[in-house]
Amino acid sequence: MSSSDPKPGPKPGPWPPTPESAAMPPSSWAKKTGFRPKFSGETTATDSSSGQLSLPVRAKQQETQPDLEAGQTRLRPPPSVSAAVTNGETDKDKKEKPPPPPPGSVAVPVKDQPVKRRRDSDGVVGRSNGPDGANGSGDPVRRPGRIEETVEVLPQSMDDDLVARNLHMKYGLRDTPGLVPIGFYGLQHYLSMLGSLILVPLVIVPAMGASHEEVANVVSTVLFVSGITTLLHTSFGSRLPLIQGPSFVFLAPALAIINSPEFQGLNGNNNFKHIMRELQGAIIIGSAFQAVLGYSGLMSLILRLVNPVVVAPTVAAVGLSFYSYGFPLVGKCLEIGVVQILLVIIFALYLRKISVLSHRIFLIYAVPLSLAITWAAAFLLTETGAYTYKGCDPNVPVSNVVSTHCRKYMTRMKYCRVDTSHALSSAPWFRFPYPLQWGVPLFNWKMAFVMCVVSVIASVDSVGSYHASSLLVASRPPTRGVVSRAIGLEGFTSVLAGLWGTGTGSTTLTENVHTIAVTKMGSRRVVELGACVLVIFSLVGKVGGFLASIPQVMVASLLCFMWAMFTALGLSNLRYSEAGSSRNIIIVGLSLFFSLSVPAYFQQYGISPNSNLSVPSYYQPYIVSSHGPFKSQYKGMNYVMNTLLSMSMVIAFIMAVILDNTVPGSKQERGVYVWSDSETATREPALAKDYELPFRVGRFFRWVKWVGI
């Protein structure tokens, strides 16, 4: 369009206009005259006969999206603004005066004002086009009640990915920082996920009746296997910077196997080794099934059924299912447990914006910092005699205590004192974890079948992590073949975990997404270096002994926070769908409710209020195989059905899959995961570089189309 002003049109008629002088729809006259608004999008106006003014407004506003770690909101510049900046011009230089509307309508001139985004005190982001505080549609915009802040957000689509990498991440997937940054960020990455790596073995191993030395050995083994499997995954799996470790998905089935009726007669060291060998056998079979699922390409078919509305309640149910374990154990020593919970909440929420050298130390290190402070306070209380009672020895088993006075304080001494564990003193300085260190695995078909079902749910959890992390660090989401390859490798690495005897499988930790978003570090080199350091630490027996000596109350307190985080991370997958849709709300609500209610029916069936159970109250949900409602002439089938239907994640997964794939809904409403395809990989070299196998290994498997790019 020429920069000269257009000829003035005829004068507007009388107001209100006569019916026969109705204005032409603005979209029509705008097209005829060549008028284009300042921002991309159609102009809207009402018919003049309605008595309203014709006012060009912007139809599509900038998008703002919430961040997991919150604190900043990133704005995506509109295309027209981006183009102006790219060409070295501004909107002011290219501004053109629009022609007047046709006769019968009145055009009100709108001053060119920069579009501003502001965040109110309640978190609402508004748009203002002028100094009067009104937006483009004439609606008033609320003024912020506090200092404005800029918020960075996680991308929700592939279109936002490039902007996210440039504005959100410090280093992308293939970036290689210097040696010092790699070392620093690698240590930071693993310290922020310390709780996810060590808390699972600290729950299941004592439940087997293991000694302090055996607990330390299992913790060292977990660190060793986690380092090895992470290196394998970043090299030959999804190639995303995701730490592998003992997932909470395996915790409930492991506790169910540990509390099986056939193991109740065992005691001491025999109990630990026998149960560990049974767990190893079940994990190996279930993980082999997962490997076949991935490498055979069947996972590509299952991906059609797995969407955010399925992933969200399934993962959230994993965290919610442990409500009966968390605080009941914290209550054993309230002054220590509650302080631990309060500290981690204060660090992760109230102090999350405090930065030291551009690093949010309280948000990143919330778990280790709160653990260190609480542990030091408990040590001082122990040394000053706060938990010392005359004539009572905390190292004597409760069953051997005769004095009534001492029996009264035995629980308090056991859970509040920090010197009751001898894991650090009994652990050797050097120990190399080796396969089959607990003996030859034992294979039981009923336990193996349970683990096969759990491996499918672990795959669903990993799929959500792949998609969310790829939008943060990679050029595009992976292809279905890459996802299948990654799931297959997770199955293989879980087989290694079964052979080494960690007590759980090794899968992608869901907390990876939160850690990447907080640390803004997406380089796979950082994760690989941290994995090497983890392997080195696992060879120092005292490291495992130190971690194994964390008091149980502190473990339970941290688990309360970790399980809450796990639940929230699961529900955050709904941001890829229309979370306000009544369809999705009902599906997620039904899945979550019945994931708690149905297992409660199985867990309470056949138990009278006055029954005297041989296990602590926080283990009662995992003994359902001995008294569940499913009863047939096949004891193995009874075990499988009662155990599976008493797990919240299984019920949530079944309901979400059925409802999401049978209830009508558009792809946009369901938030169907958009994976890259082979044509995109061929057209965009960046996608191939992100996910192709190293050392030209992929050339030998080009014929396997279903597990590659």
TrEMBL record:
InterPro entries: NCS2. Coiled coil: none annotated. It holds the Pfam family Xan_ur_permease. It is a multi-pass membrane protein. One of its GO terms (cellular component) is membrane. The chain crosses the membrane at residues 190-209, 215-233, 240-259, 279-298, 305-323, 329-350, 362-381, 526-547, 553-572, 584-602, 639-659. GO terms for molecular function: transmembrane transporter activity. Keywords: Membrane, Transmembrane, Transmembrane helix. Residues 1-145 are annotated as: Disordered. Residues 7-19 have a biased composition (Pro residues). It comes from the Eukaryota. Residues 89-98, 113-122 have a biased composition (Basic and acidic residues). It is found in: Membrane. Residues 41-53 have a biased composition (Polar residues). Belongs to the nucleobase:cation symporter-2 (NCS2) (TC 2.A.40) family. This is Xanthine/uracil/vitamin C permease. The lineage of its organism: Eukaryota, Viridiplantae, Streptophyta, Embryophyta, Tracheophyta.
